[in-house]
């Protein structure tokens, strides 16, 4: 699979926001939530220990788009005026811009308000469609119908209509629209035979609130909800996310059924996208990356516990599937891999597998700035973790440290008192931190408190950030 870095394969980069590893059959789940991803995995590489840079969307995407850790790029908190910036620093070349410099035609379709013009992560895309169907960047490729352009002009109204608790528009309306336009984009790339395509999507069916279609419940042999249940369930789930109430075990199990049904519906759209991609490109030569930016806690841990639930495997051990150029047979990799390394993987066209010997660490680094949501408490504490195959070492900036034993996908980590291991990892973490760049992230980023448009603010409230 080793290829020259001068290769320019067509690239599909798909981030399935908030998708938990333990809810996928290819990682051992007993429900067939993602049959299309399962089929892709049969001719791709599945990473068992892929580790997200952080436990939420903005810093995680910023790391995947730059190759930098959260503390290096500085995009750690979009709300508080003393703890980080919302946008990448000047002088940074995000992934799409790097690929465009290599002659790629680039298009992005984002279901998440954090990923787009709000954060500057749309930089370098010829075409970019925002979460509320606003045409953020129009590269002249004729992929938007007259109705699409009407949606764009009325994007703020669509944004409001999508918010909870009005429920006028279910998320799958946006998911379907984003995927349909991405498919049209893939068709339009025929107009540029000498320019390879880079297609990026962020889809959010795995992020609350959950409104999967009834057909998805039937396909998984789950109880089909009536007309009132989705509204009640999501209202109570939002109260849990905002730390106003707990999830009972019975309610949690029902939420997970909604979660699985949402994955099943999303996988249907992913199947459509993969089929269109395969029909338009030399699939054998293509690079396909499918991952999640982080997981999702749904009642498994005390949200006020120490160490914070954000650093648990359920949030940072994420699915990752890579179909390399020239790969046709599936394989599995156990080595820890940092998701931020996807930047170099994609930028070089998959020139070398992620687990190649150079630059891969035995332990993957996670950085978390808690809290990262717009709450009244403004004291932010930085946590870091080193994640290996068997152990995870967690430490905050005050020196509080914890060692846990990892027990497998979907299993709770166990506290561990192996003092020699803990001391070794403490030393390793010190060395990793000392090697981090201080780069432009410390110089030019604005530290002013972010103001959002009313439709964006409403959407962030629904997602549990405000």
Q: Could you characterize what this model shows?
A:
This protein is of the alpha/beta class. It has one domain: Alkaline Phosphatase, subunit A (3-Layer(aba) Sandwich). It contains 14 helices and 17 strands. Strands 6-5-4-7-1-8-10-2-11 form a 9-stranded mixed sheet, with helices on both faces. A hairpin with a 3-residue loop joins strand 14 and strand 15 (391-396). Helix 6 (155-161) runs parallel beside helix 14 (454-462) and helix 7 (171-188) packs parallel to helix 10. The longest helix is centred in the middle third of the chain and has 32 residues, at 249-280.
Question: How is this fold's topology laid out?
Answer:
Layout: E1 11-16, H1 35-41, E2 45-47, E3 50-51, H2 57-64, H3 70-73, H4 95-101, E4 105-110, E5 127-129, E6 135-137, H5 146-153, H6 155-161, H7 171-188, E7 197-203, H8 214-219, H9 229-241, H10 249-280, E8 287-291, H11 313-316, E9 317-318, E10 320-323, E11 331-333, E12 337-338, H12 342-347, E13 364-370, E14 381-387, E15 391-396, E16 401-405, E17 414-415, H13 419-435, H14 454-462
Parallel strand pairs: 1-7, 1-8, 2-11, 3-12, 4-5, 4-7
Antiparallel strand pairs: 2-10, 3-9, 5-6, 8-10, 13-14, 14-15, 15-16, 16-17
